[in-house]
Amino acid sequence: MQNEVAHRRLRELILDGTYAPGVRLTEVDAAAALEMSRTPVREALRALAADGLVRTTGRGVVVVALDPGDLEDAYQVRAALEALTAETAATRQRDGRLAPADLTALRTLADVTAETTSEGRLVEAVELNRRFHRRIAELAGNRIALETLNRVWDQIQVSTLRSLKPVVRHAHVSAQHDDLLAAITDGRAQDAGQIARRHVLDTRTTARQPPEQQ
Predict the structure, then answer these.
(1) pLDDT in tens, 123-176
(2) Residues 94 and 170 in one domain
(3) Which end of the chain has a smaller Cβ tally under 10 Å, C or N?
(4) How far apart (Å, rounded) are the C-alpha atoms in residues 194 and 84?
(5) Which positions fall inside the HTH gntR-type domain (predicted)?
(6) Three-class secondary structure of residue 53 per DSSP
(7) Which residues is 25 bridged to in the sheet?
(8) What is the pLDDT of residues 53-82, one digit of tens each?
């Protein structure tokens, strides 16, 4: 249990930028920050290394970010998996296997995400956007896809957090969320998959552009 708590808390500190790429962490420092013993922290750092969020060094670990080539690959994997989960969620909706309350909650989450994004609350918007897409993956009911997406999302988030900037095209992002939600609600599996893939690849393209081109 302590191992899981240490892993969760250290992961949160990495994902919110408290421990940014390049920061070195030792067992002693991390244990002091978490006010825990070194044993669960040691296991947590090993788990984070397996997650791809840190790499071991001669002394402790270093938080890592994906290089441009690996980041491109991560977006391609994310696009493929989100297309799969969106298509599967829409299929389950078509077959009457999703509860109306699930779609209502997803609609609410999309609205809150749009509002937060338009107001420029960037870190909060990133988390809400991830929750929206994670919820779709959960509705798909594919555990392996969800677990893989969680890892890919973590690596992308760490690698792009420093470059966060106001989303100039937030209306476009929100419209894509609306289109995706509509396709899932209507049970249009092929459309849902195509919209999800396009949305991720648009996000990748925007992330690579300088601010004046966004």
Answers:
(1) 888 899 999 999 999 999 999 999 999 999 999 999 988 766 655 567 788 999
(2) yes
(3) N
(4) 9
(5) 1-66
(6) coil
(7) 61
(8) 999 988 889 999 999 999 999 999 999 999
